[in-house]
Amino acid sequence: MPSCLILSDSTLDFSSFQAKVEQVQVVPFHYTDAQGSFSGDDDLFSTMGPHEFYNAIRSGAELMTSQPSQLEFEELFSAVRDSGDEAVLFCISTGISGGYNGAHAALGRICEQAPEFRKRIFVVDTLASSTPMHLLVYEACRMRDRGFSAREIYEWALEARWCVQTLFMVDDLDALHRGGRIPKSVAAAGDVLHVKPLLHFDLEGKLGMVGVARGRKKGLAKLAKFYQTRHIDPADGPIAAIGDADAPHDGDALAALIKERYPELRVLRSAIGPTIGCHVGPGMVSCCFWGKDRRDAKAGA
Length: 301
Fold this sequence. Notes:
By secondary structure, the chain is α/β, with parallel strands linked by helices. It has two domains: 4-30 and 65-161, Rossmann fold, CATH 3.40.50.10440; 163-299, Hypothetical Protein Tm841, Chain: A,domain 3 (2-Layer Sandwich), CATH 3.30.1180.10. 41% of the residues lie in helices and 23% in strands. It is built from eleven helices and 13 strands. The chain has helices spanning 16-21, 50-58, 70-83, 99-113, 130-145, 150-160, 174-178, 184-193, 216-230, 248-261, 274-280, and strands at 4-9, 24-27, 30-33, 39-41, 63-66, 86-91, 121-125, 164-169, 196-201, 207-213, 239-244, 266-271, 285-290. The protein has a six-stranded mixed β-sheet with strand order 10-9-8-13-11-12, sandwiched between helices. It has a four-stranded parallel β-sheet with strand order 2-1-6-7, with helices on both faces. Helix 3 (70-83) packs across helix 4. The longest helix is centred in the middle third of the chain and has 16 residues, at 130-145. The chain starts with a strand and ends in an 11-residue tail after the last strand. 45% of the residues are buried.
């Protein structure tokens, strides 16, 4: 029976070390500033640490990102085809990026040459990115280790993505607006109120502002409350993924707040990677976990 490979684009919040330990192959996004003097591949901070990266943004770098080329995806899929393995590729939401569409088109060309390959590799639109992708890919690795097939993991992911609850706090909305991820009206509202915006992914995988907090301390308290009121524990115990964009003390403080009430909680701590960091800027703190199906109106969002 072929081995099941877990693949992901680099918008998930794995570190390079975790990707190696979990045996997740990552295809990188790319970033550059307007002058091209500060650029690179999103290698999950293996060559540049989070603090150096976010300090560049603090110093005025206005970074743009580009998705992997279709050639990069084709090379990835060709390697899987030639290995005889099967695979699942997790991609950033189509609501904020064209990465999934590029991967899907590249897979189509590979399958024109080898139609049977469609039974061996699957591409998931996670309708999210960053910390929620961390949670999804982490669990996919557990399923792979338990012997699930690529098709089984793919079908699970299509349902599981609706049950990932996500809330994150950013310092401001300027970077998200410049990157076209939120409308100008939403960014302007955050600026006028002088608050810390709280955002989520909606059912289309787009970003939306769902609340505000007057100060980071109150924002962290709201993130902890969000976990308290929305989480549903999986069979192997409570788990939450918490990420930060060069704000490790805040990320650790959030984990401590939740663990005060739920001491058995397993926390997946991570740094928000370069691709997402280009669009949210330094200071973001995120929290995600398993909860109700978000398609159920009673679950809210």
